[in-house]
Design goal:
This protein is of the alpha/beta class. It folds into three domains: about 140 residues, Rossmann fold, CATH 3.40.50; about 250 residues, tm_1862 like domain (pyruvate-formate lyase- activating enzyme, Alpha-Beta Horseshoe); about 120 residues, no CATH class. It has 22 helices and 19 strands. Strands 2-1-3-4-5-6 form a six-stranded parallel sheet, sandwiched between helices. Strands 7-10-11-12-13-14 form a six-stranded parallel sheet. The longest helix is centred in the C-terminal third of the chain and has 18 residues. The radius of gyration is 27 Å and the shape is globular. It starts with a strand and ends with a strand. About 35% of the residues are buried.
Length: about 575
Amino acid sequence: MKVLLVALNARYVHSSLALRYLKSYYEKWADTENEVIIQEFTINDSIERVTAEIYKSKPDIVGFSCYIWNIVLVLETARRLKKVKEDLIILLGGPEVSFEPEKILEQCGFIDYIISGEGERAFLDFLKSFEKNNQTPNKVIKASSIDDLGNIPFPYTDDDLKHLKDKIIYYESSRGCPFRCSYCLSSAVNGVRFMPMERVKTDLYSFIKAEVKQVKFVDRTFNCNKKRAMEIWSFLSEKAKPNMNFHFEICADLLDDEMLDFLNRVPTGLFQFEIGVQSTNVNTIRLINRSMDFEKVSASVKRIAQGENIHQHLDLIAGLPAEDYAYFRKSFNDVYKLKPERIQLGFLKLLKGSPIRRQASEFGYVYTDSPPYEVLKNNTLSYDEILRLKMIEDLLEKYYNTHRFDNALEYITGRFDTCFDFFEEFSFFWERNNLHTVSHSNEALYLLLLDFYESLFDDGSKLFKDILKFDFILHQKNYRLPERFCGPKIKNFKERCFEFLKDEENLKKHLPHYKGLTAKQIYKQVNFEPFSYDVMEVIKNKQNTVPEPKQVTILFDYKTRVQVVQKARAYKIRI
């Protein structure tokens, strides 16, 4: 038999770990030789293309990996395939079909079988049974957990590692979670199972040898076992090559001084942490059965930030029980004050099988009938407020998470009572001007922020314009400066810049890494820009008052340097 396993990934850079586990487990433990192959698409591929490519593969069985982001496309693809090939056997598996599978079979007559739960062993048994009888006795195959994760082979072949080198590769060193958060499907599984440590190191060394770009651990709470976490982190710190990145979902309040001291010393860019705060409302945390000490989280995030070597990504969830708009404002401000590299403002999804979905009536949840089952309102948060938070989330992505506006945001948020108040007021401006209805260039985003500032404040607009200009140039080597940022022309400015670059003392002080190059060669690698204010001094002192104007020239050097947020180095100079 020819068995085709199909993944419809959310993005092109993603890859399917689940299907590779099914394939590798079958090939290791099966006593038969069915051909099992994997085909990967994205949800952005047309349904016509997906259907056609699967059909042309001429499989006997097609298995789909089902999640909230792809289930609609999966079902429509399966429906079409069954119409053009009636004898095709269609199998579904994954979290989106593991709960209420009988209901799915009843509603979708074109689906033949569903594996509910952890799929490796169940998939093997399914193919064995099907091969013998050309069918299985049950339409729903209830899967049992694999106790010894070491029995699951390494899921990636050499060809995989070569093909996926520049994509995100997913890996797990454990299954399960010690916590029972009511919005998470991990709450449906008891305990944590660990992959044998030597096996983990062998697997990770395979990634290192292949020099893959990023490995994302899917462990729900990677550091729930301190000894294991430290051993894996130490191994990667010693063995990993430059420009590799390993992403971990961690619980920051479990980090102690020994771990934090170690993390401050790891190579810059090697690790990336995702930290689920979700809410700082103690009552909300209790209602979702979550364990978190935000004071400890805050202290850990600040300690990690001191090392300037680890990208931190903090999550918030809007729509949790007992968290109204006012308290979400507080949660937002609590997290924003920590200044992580990324803040993700997500919206509660009432996933099938999650305890909070069973509590929907208790908290007055109204949510979408179709995936991703996102909350529309509840007892404490109205739909109007959800829409406002959606607008804020969009601005957070455009302005905070890109890091192209860091200094401008630091300055302008200082003129509001809180950071949330700035984003809220900015969202009103955005909506009044229908800015949410069109896309905007990078240049336009700078100018819109300037428009917003000028609509509110009579003073300081020239200074704020200079700060925006500084941010603009800091992140763009070959830039065309927006006309509104251009000041009066300075006589012989270019000639003076060349004279600066010809001076050996200037190069020694500011640009020693360009030694041996001519002034003309260096000029192509850097930028000189005049400013009306000493913006670097304003930024350094976190100054919100408007100083006296002062003509300053700033040199921007774009020579690559490894850091958490890539940007140029800037120097005040005399020319």
